[in-house]
Every structure is written in C-alpha cells, then in structure tokens.
Amino acid sequence: MPGNRQPRVRSGNEPRPASTMEPEGRGAWAHSRAALDRLEKLLRCSRCNIFGLRPVDYADGENMKSLLLLPEKNESSSTRHCSVTSTGPRRDGPLVLIGSGLSSEQQKMLSELAAILKAKKCAEFDNTVTHVIVPGDTAQSTLKCMLGILSGCWILKFEWVKACLQRKACEQEEKYEIPEGPQRSRLNKEQLLPKLFDGCYFYFGGTFKHHPKDNLIKLVAAAGGQVLSRKPKPDSDVTQTINTVAYHARPDSDQRFCTQYIIYEDLSNRRPERVRQGKVWMAPSSWFIDCVMSFELLPLDS
C-alpha cells in the first residue's frame, strides 16, 4: 500500500542522479568561466595601481608570486581579439544613439534608424549613450564625441546607419568602428580597467577659447580624473609626497609618477613659465585633447 511505503535512504557513497543542465546553466557557467579568465588576466597585468604597485606586489608568499609571474597561456591573437570584441555596450541594454557633427539629412536618417531599432536618440550626451555616430572615417574633437570615447561607447562611421537601414536590423558594430583611440577605450571599459585619467589631477590656468574650460572639466570627470581649484606648488612637500601614480602612463616612464598637471591654452600668445618638477608637470591643452582622442596618456616632451 502506498501509505506503508518506507522512505528510501541513500547511503553516503551512492552517487546522486545527475541533474539536467538547462541552457541557462550552461550560460551561467560560461559567464563564470569568462569572469575567471578576465580576473586571471587582471591579476597577471603588469600595470601599476595608483600607489605604483602591481598585483604581484600584493601576493602573500612565494607560491602566490610564482603563480602570478607564470607566462600566460598560449592563445592566438585572433581568438583573443574575438573574445574581447564580441561583447559591447549594445548587449547590456537598450541602444541609445547620438550623432556628432552630422548633417541635417544624416540626423534624419539616424532618427529613422532609432525608430526601426526601437532605440532612443539623444540630443545631448549623457551616461546612457551607447553609440556615437560620426560622419566620416575619423573621430572628431567635439564634446559629444570625446565624451563618447572616454565613456567607452561605440564610435561608429555613418556607414553603419546606412547598413542598418538597408537591412532594417542592427548590424554588427565592429566593421564600422573608428579604430585606435575609440576602440582602445571601449575594450578598456569591457575589461573593467580604470579610466584614462585615473590617478591624475588637473589645474586649468588662464582662459581657454578653442575648448572652453567647462568642457575640459567635463572631460576630466568623464575620464576619472580630478580638477584642482588651486594651482599645485611643485616645491611643496605635501604635493611631492602624494603616493599615487597614473594608471595609464607607460610603465617605464617617469610620467607615471606625475599626478598633477597644470594645463594652459597653447593657442594663446601668452606662455606661462614652464614647470616639470617631480609630480607636477605643465602641459598644453592640445596635449590634453590628444590624450582623449587617442585614449592614451601621451608622453610630454622634456
């Protein structure tokens, strides 16, 4: 009788029945594996943090240090590239489009695409933007485009809009992405690395005409930097003993120990006294813009 059936007790050595792996389970496992691979790459990274230390410098014991100093697994550059570029801002949420430097006809076509893709089209840049569309084959030094670069957005040629309209579907972005700086920034964001000006402080002295000071301040904030209200003093002990380094500076450069920049407008006739002492360097505004466009902390001529 069913009522007299004894409950079956499984011994500790008896294997449990294998659970059926659902697609979500495989996806979660793959996501975890990808996260572990990314963590491994970050731990093996030779970059320094804001205190000038690498992951290996925090290792507790020789065994951990030896593991972090092991060479990376052999991996073809094409496989590594695909694994990084196969994901992007579009996959994480809805598309938010903005045009920079587009003609009125191009803006109209972008609005048509937004309707087809059920995307949002912005007039002003904000932190929800995922795609910045430019008219040609190069990035522009407009505020919208530079904010898009620093935020790790897709910076795409207008040909992408045409291709999407032709198919009435979203085309893969990689083929239409502006190379170099914009691509570097997007990959930097996907790898969860610090922003461009992480560890850097900026003081803007004088007037700025080509790029207004308010815009420069917005760029510093978008790049993870800090704005100084007072001009740093190179001979100050407090200034020179700040124990931070610039993350994106070249590891073999003395510039990684420079954390405070005095920026001046190099297009004006007035040139301030040159400063390059310890952690305080002077740099023209054109250098600042070039850093943003290339997504690199570019070297400064001595």
TrEMBL record:
- PROSITE patterns linked to this entry: BRCT
Which UniProt keywords are given for this protein, alphabetically ordered?
A: ANK repeat, Repeat
Does the keyword field hold Magnesium?
A: no
Entry's Gene Ontology BP terms:
protein K6-linked ubiquitination
A GO molecular function for this record? ubiquitin-protein transferase activity
* One cellular component (GO) term of this entry: BRCA1-BARD1 complex
Report if keyword Repeat is assigned: yes
Q: Where is this region: Disordered?
A: 1-29
- Sequence ranges assigned to domain BRCT in this UniProt record: 95-178, 192-302
Query: What is the top-level taxon of the source organism?
Result: Eukaryota
Gene3D superfamilies for this protein: BRCT domain (3.40.50.10190)
The record ties this protein, via PANTHER family, to: ANKYRIN REPEAT DOMAIN-CONTAINING PROTEIN 39-RELATED, BRCA1-ASSOCIATED RING DOMAIN PROTEIN 1
Q: What is this protein called?
A: BRCA1 associated RING domain 1
